[in-house]
Each structure stands twice: as C-alpha cells, then as structure tokens.
Amino acid sequence: MSGPEPTFDEEALEAARKFFARDVRFLMGCVQMEGLPEADLPEVAFAGRSNVGKSSLINAVTGRLHLARASNEPGRTREVNFFLADEQLRLVDLPGYGFAKVSRGAANKFQNLGRNYLRGRPNLKRTYLLIDARHGLKAVDTEALDALDEAAVSYQIVLTKADKIKPAEVEEVTAKTLQQISRRAAAFPRVLATSAAKGAGIPELRAEILSACGL
C-alpha cells in the first residue's frame, strides 16, 4: 500500500548504517542564497511544517543525539542548515512552514529562502517532505507540494511520529498519502513511515538517501 517496496537488502541497510556512523558534523547555517556552500557535493533536503520533527529525524538518521537542535518551539529553524556526512554528502534542514511564532514578514523571509534553495540548487538530489503521521497531508502541506512540483525537485514523503498511532492507522495514512500524491510528477512513488523515537523506518531512510545520491 505504500508504493513499490524498498529494494534494499540487509547488506545495503548495513552499509547505510555504517556510512552515517562515520563523521557527521554541522557545517553552516545560511540566511541568504549568496552564503550557500559550493554546489560540489550531492545534497538531500528535509522540509516540513514547523514542529513536524525535522531535527529529531536528522538526529536519528545520523545516530546523533544533538546534531540538529530539536525544540518544542515551532519555527525555531530560521536558516538553511547544512550538515556534512563523511565528506561525501550534505543533509540540509530547511526552515519549517506554518505556525512560526514570528512576524508574517519574517516568516515569509525564511520560507522564501527555502523556496529559493529548492529552485536554485543544481546538486539537490531529493527533498524529503516530512508529514506528521497523526494528521496526514494538510492544506499547508499541499502548498509545499505545489512548490516542489513547480521547482521540479524530486521529493519523497516521510511520515514522522508513526509510533504515536496504531500500526493499522500507519498503514491507512500511508496508503492515503500515496494516493494523494499519485498524480504529482515530481513525487517519488513510495511513502516511508518513520519514528525517530523508536527507530522505525530509519534504516530504510538512510538507504534511500545514499541511493538518491548515488553513493
């Protein structure tokens, strides 16, 4: 029900685990396009509404507790933050959208920075759009889907906090989400359900990242 099943065998999952067990570090935060690092390494970006769990997911993928700063305060990520993994790829944490406790002008500035990054980054291999499994796609997420389609950026839906609902509900929201994106040309035809707290789906996401980057 979640689209084509991952083709990753145990060897691929273990290779991805070992990759992210190597050096991963915060590289830089940028508040304008001119400050971005050179587009000389493959990148994957994480996007989603405020408080969807982007920082927690990045920490889970990299096996670090405090690499990305998690906060209960929506809208804390107000930069494009870059993390360098094994000197071979960058993970990019984009500003959250919706419910940021800042002025509308400031919120637009952060969100426009994220949009400009998506449109103008030639080495961006895939964007992971994070959706809270308890709520599924909402209207504000549809705007993000439209922006990704317009930018012609390959993106994959990742459901977060899947441990907060029953397995049958995870199956249901996964299938529904896949159906909702089925006609979107830039959407990767597989939805991943994850839990940063419990580790569910994290090995597969790591393998997806390496595959998208050709590593």
Indicate the CATH architecture: 3-Layer(aba) Sandwich
- Which overall shape is indicated by the principal axes computed on the Cα atoms? globular
Number of domains: 1
- Describe the sheet with the most strands: 7 strands, mixed
Low-confidence runs of at least 5 consecutive residues: 71-76, 99-107
Name the strands of the widest sheet in spatial order: 1-3-4-2-5-6-7
* Rg measurement, Å: 16 Å
Number of helices: 6
Total strand segments: 7
User: Kindly, what is the distance between the CA atoms of the first and last residues, rounded to a whole number of angstroms?
Assistant: 28 Å
Estimate the helix proportion, in percent: 25-40%
Structural class by sheet pairing and helices: alpha/beta
CATH level 3 topology: Rossmann fold
The residue-averaged pLDDT reads 87
Residue share in β-strands? 15-25%
Give the C-level CATH assignment: Alpha Beta
CATH homologous superfamily label: P-loop containing nucleotide triphosphate hydrolases
H/E element order:
HEEHEEHEHEHEH
Q: Can you give a write-up of this model?
A:
This protein has a single domain (10-212), classed as 3-Layer(aba) Sandwich (Rossmann fold). The protein is built from 6 helices and 7 strands. It has a 7-stranded mixed sheet, sandwiched between helices. Helix 1 (10-21) packs across helix 6 (202-212) and helix 2 (54-62) crosses helix 6 (202-212). It is 36% helix and 19% strand. The chain is globular and about 45 Å long.
Summarize the structure in short.
The protein is an alpha/beta fold. The protein is 36% helix and 19% strand.
